[in-house]
């Protein structure tokens, strides 16, 4: 089943000098339940912009976005907020945690609008998810006193806690060491598989990208299939090239 479908999506913004910056130029992409998609691309190529449109946080300039077959453009904002809250889990590039709140409070936040056990047992559910990202001992620490990698893991726990059908992760291992990054990616995979969710991962790390089943590259606002085996080759041929894809 197709969860989210973008058709010929463009995004442009008007700059202060009255010129137009074309960030996305005609993107067509379908993401289905159980899919695992990776997107690589240079800094500034439009990856976060694309993820925000996939997650219905931002609207395209032209083109269409449909969630489970329903066009998003005409939905009232309250309905759209509910649709997003019920279905989408974001791991933001800048984490976007509430600074004065504890790790536990941050992870409980999305459960405030959930139903059933997820709502009534939200404290235990959130604590359990923090345990799974290796932060069981830090649940009462306020977010701004956590290290960057710990904040990233709180952000991941918050994205997963409501069992969203669409998980959107923007550089989810960017602040993590290799081992912690690998275990966090394993957790994202595991949770996505448990709930047959779709996982879209933006990353600069080839190993992270390789975990996905479909690989894309975003270049100057256009999406094309990426050949990771060639990228791996290029990264091992030259010592000076780190294992990242520009
Ligand atoms: N609202 C906006 N107004 C002006 N420029 C914008 C706006 N949103 C994005 N941009 C510009 O569009 C380009 C793409 O931004 P985006 O954040 O999507 O890139 P990215 O691929 O996620 O980069 P990075 O890898 O550095 O996170 C950037 O040059 C950015 O400055
Ligand atoms: Mg970005």
In short:
The protein is α/β, with parallel strands linked by helices and 246 residues long. It is 35% helix and 26% strand.
Search tags:
lipoprotein; 9 helices; binds adenosine-5'-triphosphate; 246 residues; ABC-type lipoprotein export system ATPase subunit; four-stranded antiparallel beta sheet; binds magnesium ion; alpha/beta; Rossmann fold; 26% strand
Q: At the first level of CATH, what is the class?
A: Alpha Beta
Number of domains: 1
- Name the hetero compounds present: adenosine-5'-triphosphate, magnesium ion
Q: What portion of residues belong to β-strands?
A: 25-35%
Can you walk through the features of this model?
- The chain is α/β, with parallel strands linked by helices.
- It has one domain: P-loop containing nucleotide triphosphate hydrolases (Rossmann fold, 3-Layer(aba) Sandwich), CATH 3.40.50.300.
- 35% of the residues lie in helices and 26% in strands.
- The strands form two sheets. It has a six-stranded mixed beta sheet, sandwiched between helices. A four-stranded antiparallel beta sheet has the order 2-1-4-5, covered by helices on one side.
- β7 (166-170), α7 (178-194) and β8 form a beta-alpha-beta unit.
- α5 crosses α6.
- The two termini are 32 Å apart.
- The model has no long low-confidence stretch (mean pLDDT 92).
- Residues 13, 21, 23, 41, 43-49, 93 line the site of adenosine-5'-triphosphate.
- Residues 4-245 form the ABC transporter domain.
- Keywords: ATP-binding, Lipoprotein, Nucleotide-binding, Transport.
- This is ABC-type lipoprotein export system ATPase subunit.
- InterPro entries: AAA+_ATPase, ABC_transporter-like_ATP-bd, ABC_transporter-like_CS, ABC_transpr_LolD-like, MacB-like_ATP-bd, P-loop_NTPase.
- Pfam families: ABC_tran.
């Amino acid at each position: 089943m197709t969860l989210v479908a973008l058709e010929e999506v463009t995004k442009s913004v008007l700059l202060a000098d009255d010129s137009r910056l074309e960030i996305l130029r005609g993107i067509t992409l379908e993401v289905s339940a159980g899919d695992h998609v990776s997107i690589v691309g240079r800094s500034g190529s439009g990856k976060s912009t694309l993820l925000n449109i996939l997650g219905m946080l931002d609207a395209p300039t032209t083109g269409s976005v449909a969630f489970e077959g329903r066009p998003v453009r005409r939905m009232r904002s309250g309905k759209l907020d509910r649709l997003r809250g019920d279905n989408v889990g974001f791991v933001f590039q800048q984490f976007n945690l509430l600074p004065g709140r504890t790790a536990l409070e941050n992870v409980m936040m999305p459960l405030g609008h959930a139903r059933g056990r997820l709502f009534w047992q939200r404290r235990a559910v959130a604590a359990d998810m923090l345990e799974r990202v290796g932060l069981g001992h830090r649940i009462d620490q306020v977010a701004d006193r956590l290290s960057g990698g710990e904040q990233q893991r709180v952000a991941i726990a918050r994205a997963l806690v409501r069992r969203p059908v669409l998980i959107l992760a923007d550089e989810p291992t960017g602040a993590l060491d290799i081992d912690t990054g690998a275990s966090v990616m394993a957790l994202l995979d595991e949770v996505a598989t448990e709930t047959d969710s779709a996982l879209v991962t933006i990353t600069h790390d080839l190993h992270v990208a390789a975990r996905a089943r479909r690989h894309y590259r975003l270049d100057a606002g256009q999406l094309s299939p990426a050949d990771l085996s060639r990228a791996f080759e290029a990264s091992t041929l030259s010592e000076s090239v780190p294992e990242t894809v520009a």
